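Input chain follows. Return structure tokens only.
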Amino acid sequence: MARVDADAARRMTEALFIERSLRSPSSTRFWALLVLASVIAGAGVIGDSTATVIGAMIVAPLMTPILGSALALVLADRDHVLRSVLLVLLGASAVVVIGMLLGWIVSPPDAFASNSQVSSRISPRLIDLLAALATGTVGAFALVRTDISDTLPGVAIAISLVPPLVVTGLLITAHRYHDAGESALLFATNVAAIVATGTIVFLVYGVRDAASEAGLHVGEFSGRTLPVILGVVVLIAVPLTTGTVTVARDRSLAAGARPVAEAWAATGKWQIASVEARNGIIVIGVLGLPPQPAPAALRTALDRHGMRDADLELHLVGGRTHWCPADTDTCTVQESPRS
């Protein structure tokens, strides 16, 4: 395996370490691209456009300080570690704020309830961590190997950094705080995976020795660095495991609730528009003309089919929402969908 040389080490530090001055070329480029990528991602999420969101992924520069953090850890360069981590935190906060601003401007009536761009980012699972680990490895690999650097645009698309942060901001404005936390967890998962895999790849390719040859600052590498990083990855895997179990349970709930809901709707010649489950809550959309079937009858039917422990949220035509808690036979009308 070819190890990087002094020229490659200089190239990597120039590419990943953003200068301190806000007027420097690397700093102005980072912030300008970040703001533009946030607006593009926000437009894509609000418009439920996959193509627009992919465009934002390619433009987004957050991968630079994240991989910069990994390189600084390998070089044991305290100043650049702090600077890169601060850029990641400030950049992520800026994207969330832009998402909130866009949410306040748009203020969608359905609170993104049926938006596929949102729903795909609020249920992070273990498979997302595995994908992030593989993608982070490719990103670091492409930096140390100039012959495969053309893969970086593909890496930018594969790793989701700006879109989940925009989703977090949008969901905060919609008061969907749990889902906002889940999309933020997806971002944290990707960051931890990139830092972990980047650190390992840079160590394997001898970046420390190459940086020393190039006359760059190289501190004493602590043996605790890798265990701490891997510990963070394992820590993040815990809620992702829980999320994986929750998603499986929700799918089972939705599959079991659909035939029950269809039989209930048929009594009033209504039509079931959608059946899904969110965090153990069965959410059903119904279309039809008055008179409507009794929501309490659906609650009772679900109880008979073994779904007594699941709450029910029933969306009827005209925007009315009935909330039927578990273990009860009564339903209340909500002004807006629960989150």
